[in-house]
């Protein structure tokens, strides 16, 4: 099934996956922000979405059970409800767009999040149910059209008064759920193919290795330095992914 991809593509995608997992390992987020702008340079949009769903389903499994004990279920259910409603709209929109539009979308979303984080822009109001439903819906649409459901939830929760463990658990479980929901949604839209699934399974190893190395490199006293490095890698990936280079 991997015959559809040549060796340079497999090497490039393995390196991209390793780098993305490395960033997540020492910063706690950013794997999709690094991987998708790079993968979209050699894969179709739906192939890129399929591969990241496959290899991202494996990584969080060891900590899902613990996170389920810390999460705030009403908030999580509201986020997922918004996701389920808006995800098909995002996927339908993606079917209407050329591949170049997908590359613009993933790069712009990544750069927009970096600007917001760099300027310290956060939502500081009350996390009322309508806002949480809306955030889930925005994440679902972005998941469908650009494969990046994280930015709305990250910006919402980073200024939240919720306990840190609740914020971490809700964010992790929601992002894990986006992958679980996206896989059957791609099948319903007829956009799953065996080669992309096989490629995603092939990329599980560099994903796990990158995450382990990133976690080993992390030192809490240097958290600010790691964030600067993570932001720089995400920015470089997003800029390189823009379909404006020769």
Characterise this structure:
It is a single chain. This protein has 246 residues and is mainly α. It has one domain (2-241). 78% of the residues lie in helices and 0% in strands. The protein contains twelve helices and no strands. Helix 3 (45-58) packs across helix 11 (204-217) and helix 5 packs parallel to helix 7 (129-146). The radius of gyration is 17 Å and the shape is globular. The chain starts with 6 loop residues before the first helix and ends in a 5-residue tail after the last helix. The mean pLDDT is 87.
Write the layout of secondary structure elements.
Blueprint: H1 7-27, H2 31-39, H3 45-58, H4 61-70, H5 73-96, H6 99-119, H7 129-146, H8 150-157, H9 164-188, H10 194-202, H11 204-217, H12 223-241
Residue fraction in strands? under 5%
Determine the mean pLDDT.
Answer: 87
Number of domains: 1
Q: What is the β-strand count?
A: 0
Helix content: over 70%
N to C succession of SSEs = HHHHHHHHHHHH
What's the helix count?
Answer: 12
Short key terms for the protein model shown above:
246 residues; mainly alpha; 0% strand; 12 helices; globular
């Amino acid at each position: 099934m991997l015959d559809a991809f040549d060796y340079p593509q497999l090497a490039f995608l393995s390196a991209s996956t390793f780098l993305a997992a490395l960033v997540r390992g020492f910063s706690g987020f950013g794997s999709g922000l690094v991987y998708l702008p790079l993968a979209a340079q050699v894969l179709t949009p739906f192939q890129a979405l399929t591969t990241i769903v496959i290899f991202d389903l494996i990584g969080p499994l060891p900590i899902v059970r613990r996170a389920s004990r810390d999460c705030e279920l009403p908030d999580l259910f509201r986020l997922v409800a918004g996701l389920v409603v808006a995800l098909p709209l995002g996927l339908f929109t993606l079917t209407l767009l050329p591949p170049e539009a997908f590359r613009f979308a993933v790069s712009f979303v990544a750069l927009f999040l970096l600007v917001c984080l760099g300027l310290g822009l956060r939502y500081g109001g009350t996390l009322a149910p309508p806002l949480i439903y809306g955030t889930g819906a925005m994440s679902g649409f972005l998941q469908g059209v650009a494969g990046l459901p994280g930015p709305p939830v990250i910006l919402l929760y980073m200024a939240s008064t919720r306990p840190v463990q609740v914020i971490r658990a809700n964010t992790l479980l929601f992002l894990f759920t986006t992958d679980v929901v996206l896989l059957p949604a791609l099948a319903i839209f007829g956009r799953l193919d065996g080669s992309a699934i096989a490629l995603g399974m092939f990329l599980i190893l560099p994903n796990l290795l990158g995450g382990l190395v990133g976690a080993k490199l992390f030192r809490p006293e240097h958290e600010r330095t790691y964030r600067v490095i993570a932001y720089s890698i995400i920015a470089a990936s997003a800029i390189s992914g823009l379909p404006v280079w020769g």
